[in-house]
Specification:
Length: 248
């Protein structure tokens, strides 16, 4: 069998409820979305990156940013994120889909590459994710076959399953083989961090990290972020009060 085509799909829109326009907010001279897509595109084992956004005119700047980086774009219904992902996967001819979200500007390409390798080389699974209880939020990624994405898009009726893309899969452990991967080599210090951008405090932290790291080390990894935060322990408190939204 030919090697499966592995495509990362990220979602972004300007009308996020908690921090509208967040994906184009600046840090270290570039929009957060540009940092996210550029880092994602360096992932080992990845064949393509596609951005899934909406047909709304408000998202034209999102499209322009992605296309300026050479990233393909699929546009679909704002409320039906699952449908957008299925359309993006079809556009790119994906066999395996890596799902990420554009509110993660610090995403680590090496970590995502390890997720891809673990899925392809480990025991047969239908779904594998980076263990978000072991890493800072904002490094999250999931991988699964496109056929399951197509099944979900055809059958999911629950609004949460259409908004959050993968609950159709991971809520059905009786049908699908699920796994979490990539326990870090060392405990995360400081622990319980949020590196995703949902609220202004999140943006302030991520902006500081990008501006501290990009000038001298543009290819930095997640552990470089941990070191920077150990050097600036007060930064960890910037967004400590923000709570993660969940689809459950």
């Amino acid at each position: 069998m030919d090697r499966p085509r592995v495509v990362a799909i990220s979602q972004a829109r300007m009308t996020s409820t908690r921090l509208p326009g967040k994906v184009l907010m600046p840090a270290a001279g570039r929009p957060l979305l540009a940092h996210h897509l550029e880092r994602l595109s360096r992932t080992p084992g990845l064949d393509a990156v596609v951005l899934a956004t909406t047909v709304n005119a408000t998202d034209d700047p999102v499209v322009e940013c992605a296309q300026g980086l050479g990233v393909a774009v699929f546009r679909g219904d704002e409320q039906d994120v699952l449908g957008r992902f299925a359309g993006a996967a079809a556009l790119a001819g994906a066999d395996l889909v890596v799902r990420v979200t554009a509110d993660c500007p610090l995403i680590d390409p090496v970590l995502v590459g390890r997720l891809i390798a673990a899925f392809r080389e480990g025991q047969p699974l239908d779904y594998l994710s980076i263990d978000s209880t072991r890493y800072p939020r904002g490094l999250d990624a999931e991988i699964f076959p496109r056929r399951l994405l197509d099944e979900a898009a055809a059958n999911a009726a629950d609004p949460a399953e259409r908004e959050h893309v993968t609950p159709y899969i991971y809520r059905r452990p009786d049908r699908f083989r699920l796994g979490t991967a990539l326990v870090p080599d060392v405990p995360v210090e400081p622990a319980d961090q949020r590196w995703c951008v949902d609220e202004p405090a999140d943006y302030e932290l991520v902006r500081r990290l990008l501006e501290a790291l990009v000038p001298s080390n543009p290819g930095f990894g997640w552990q470089d972020c941990c070191k920077t935060l150990r050097d600036h322990p007060d930064w960890v408190d910037i967004n400590r009060s923000v709570r993660q939204k969940t689809p459950h």
